Amino acid sequence: MRTDGATIAVFQYGNPDAETTVLLVHGYPDDHRLFLPMIDALGDRVRIIAYDTRGGTDTVVDDPDSLRSFTLPRLAEDVFAVVDSIPAPRTPIHVFAHDWGSVQTWEAMSAPRAASTFASYTSVSGPSLDHLRQLARARAVALPRWPSVISQLARSWYIWGFHVPVLSRHIPRLLSAAGYFEDAPPLSLENQRRGIALYRANVVARLVGGPAAVCVVPTTIVAPRGDRFLASDLTDAVHAWVSDVEVVAVDAGHWWPYSHPGEAARLLLSRL
Predict the structure, then answer these.
(1) pLDDT tens for each residue of 213-261
(2) Most Cβ neighbours (<10 Å): which of 119, 126, 177, 250?
(3) Spatial strand order in the sheet of 6-7
């Protein structure tokens, strides 16, 4: 499927005649195969659409060396392009996203057409960068909250390494050696390399400035207690800008949809 600046690889699973359609959006450094165990658990109860995002295995970016190819507005356009490509779409669609798939889907959820396109949104281990900016600014002026800011900065050390060309190619190996990928699916070295552009194109720019965080779609935020990348208190104040939201803590690591596919499938089905 063609979109602006990329050829997106889209895949269909489950029951093509089901009344309910689910869209699965993976993160870094995965591809849509992250969800295969969860897809098996969902069975034929729903129609399932998954795709490789920019940086994923089977999607081809026209200009992969340009950071403009990986900005959040482009990624959000991809989400809608995939939705629009679904044959005989049954809308609104339920979205389940993980990691950077979730980060880019928050961008899509802020679009005017989100309320009529999406029935629900489940976000796993992928906060809105606009929310993080708002949260960081609020905590920066509150001395008792400084330890929380410092804790997340320490967890995010690899992000700053991704911005240093000499260091960036070594970061995935360091993360693996430190056990950060212990609950992850088999990882592609090529995906690890290509996906670094997601961080370079968005993190600093959005933490410096950007639109206010907005979401009018009913949302479930899954916060794994064992996530080594993200602190559990990053969901603080999310109720201020998500009109309908529930935060669910789970006993798992960062790759909960892969390590606990049955649990993830049950939670998603309960939101339909």
Answers:
(1) 999 999 999 999 999 999 888 898 899 999 899 999 999 999 999 999 9
(2) 126
(3) 2-3, 6-7, 60-61
If you search the block for the tokens 């991704």, which residue do you land on?
A: 162
Strands 118-124 and 219-224: parallel
Which residue in 195, 182, 272, 189 sits closest to 224, CA to CA?
A: 182
Phi-psi region of 52 (alpha: psi -120 to 50; beta: other; left: phi over 0): beta
Other Cβ atoms less than 10 A from the Cβ of 111: the count is: 16
- Cα distances from 233 to residues 6, 96, 108, in angstroms, run 35, 21, 23
Residue range 84-140, pLDDT digits in tens: 999 876 678 999 999 999 999 999 999 999 999 999 999 999 999 999 999 888 877
Element at 83 (helix H, strand E): helix 72-85
